[in-house]
């Protein structure tokens, strides 16, 4: 039973009272979309939506049926309320204009509807990542309105669809985790004020790309692998889930570092992950939990976006480890 415990709605209404009360209403709609998606992905093969579409998205990725459906779910749940000036998604070439019949607001909702979607057919955790920015006035968003550095985010969060569904959120007052109580449909505050543990020794990186990494990342990872036989004070463990939400969630719960660095496999791409849909919201959540998030050469939240689908190197997690990686980058530059 959770009578008397804090629900997401109560938390959001209390935290956004005043200047951002309309954002509170928007966050409650985002949570409704997350519950719809949780129900859909939780059905697995029984949903009838396994597998891929014939289409590719603007990222050049073959879209899963669930990429498209989850994108629709967020648009439909959030377009009507009058809080938004526009939306942008990993799965849409251009920003989504709010339909004429609905009122406009000043917020911008930016999202990755299904993160880790390559895992959706193999029953491994997937998620949804979102970020909220604002423009100075209500009205239809221009594409340029979305190109604000992540430091200007007014809220960020993700949902993880694992053995339990959780929503992890920051409105700039720490990072807080809510667990979906499926019977009542309520998100209950189970993880208030999450802090990234400092002492854990765990790294996450796709080592199949090792030969393409830059020297500072090669050095850092080889030192982690050498552990106490090398220069490090402890032996390290490694994980790679290929769902960023699941890696970030693990780091928020028990520490560690996650890296998707720049590599020279495709010189046109300065990294795999997208600045607006993935890197910025996760960077805000990690910083609000006392961790650090860097490109290797500077704070992710300070990067000024030049394009909607821009990619960026990502290194985030326990502060000391991220600082060490930044030091190695500066030594080689
Ligand atoms: P998405 O499914 O939204 O396209 O994102 C997948 C991302 C991220 O979740 C994960 O960290 C990374 O891609 C995995 O990439 P590799 O397949 O190269 O390991
Ligand atoms: Mn994708
Ligand atoms: Mn993603
Ligand atoms: Mn995705």
TrEMBL record:
Q: Which cofactor does it need?
A: Mg(2+)
- What range(s) does the Fructose-1-6-bisphosphatase class 1 C-terminal domain occupy? 196-329
Q: Which family does it belong to?
A: Belongs to the FBPase class 1 family.
Residues the entry annotates as binding substrate:
115-118, 206
Q: Give me the residues that bind Mg(2+) 1, please.
A: 90, 112, 114
The record's subcellular locations are: Cytoplasm
Catalyses which reaction(s): beta-D-fructose 1,6-bisphosphate + H2O = beta-D-fructose 6-phosphate + phosphate
Q: Does the keyword Cell cycle apply?
A: no
Q: What is this protein called?
A: Fructose-1,6-bisphosphatase class 1
Q: Which UniProt keywords apply?
A: Carbohydrate metabolism, Cytoplasm, Hydrolase, Magnesium, Metal-binding
Which EC number applies? 3.1.3.11
Q: Cite a single GO MF annotation.
A: fructose 1,6-bisphosphate 1-phosphatase activity
**HAMAP family cross-referenced by the UniProt entry:** FBPase_class1
Pfam families listed in its UniProt record: FBPase, FBPase_C
- What does the cofactor field's note say? Binds 2 magnesium ions per subunit.
Q: Which domain of life is it from?
A: Bacteria
Q: Which residues form the Fructose-1-6-bisphosphatase class I N-terminal domain?
A: 7-192
Q: What class of enzyme is it?
A: hydrolase
Please name the pathway: Carbohydrate biosynthesis; Calvin cycle
In this chain, Mg(2+) 2 is annotated as bound at 112, 115, 278
The source organism is Azonexus hydrophilus
Record PROSITE patterns: FBPASE
Record text on subunit structure and interactions:
Homotetramer.
């Amino acid at each position: 039973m959770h009578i008397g415990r804090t629900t997401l709605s109560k938390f959001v209404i209390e935290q956004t009272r005043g200047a951002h009360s309309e954002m509170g209403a928007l966050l409650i709609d985002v949570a409704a979309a997350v519950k719809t998606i949780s129900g859909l992905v939780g059905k697995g093969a029984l949903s009838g939506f396994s597998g891929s579409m014939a289409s590719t998205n603007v990222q050049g990725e073959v879209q899963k049926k669930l990429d498209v459906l989850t994108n629709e779910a967020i648009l439909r749940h959030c377009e009507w309320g009058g809080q938004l000036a526009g939306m942008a998604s990993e799965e849409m070439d251009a920003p989504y204009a709010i339909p004429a019949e609905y009122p406009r607001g000043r917020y911008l909702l930016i999202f990755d509807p299904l993160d880790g979607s390559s895992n959706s057919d193999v029953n491994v955790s997937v998620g949804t990542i979102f970020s909220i920015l604002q423009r100075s006035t209500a009205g239809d968003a221009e594409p340029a309105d979305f190109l604000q550095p992540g430091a200007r985010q007014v809220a960020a969060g993700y949902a993880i669809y694992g053995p339990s569904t959780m929503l992890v959120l920051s409105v700039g007052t720490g990072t807080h985790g809510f667990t979906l109580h499926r019977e009542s449909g309520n998100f209950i505050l189970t993880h208030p004020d999450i802090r990234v543990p400092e002492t854990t020794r765990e790294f996450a990186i796709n080592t199949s790309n090792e030969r393409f990494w830059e020297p500072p990342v090669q050095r850092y990872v080889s030192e982690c692998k050498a552990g106490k036989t090398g220069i490090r004070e402890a032996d390290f463990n490694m994980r790679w889930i290929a769902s960023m939400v699941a890696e970030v969630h693990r780091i928020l719960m028990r520490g560690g570092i996650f890296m998707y660095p720049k590599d020279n496999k495709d010189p046109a791409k300065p990294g795999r992950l997208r600045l607006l849909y993935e890197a910025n919201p996760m960077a805000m959540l990690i910083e609000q939990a006392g961790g650090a998030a860097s490109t290797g050469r500077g704070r992710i939240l300070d990067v000024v976006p030049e394009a909607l689908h821009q990619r960026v190197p990502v290194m985030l997690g326990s502060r000391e480890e991220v600082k060490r990686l930044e030091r190695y980058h500066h030594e080689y530059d």
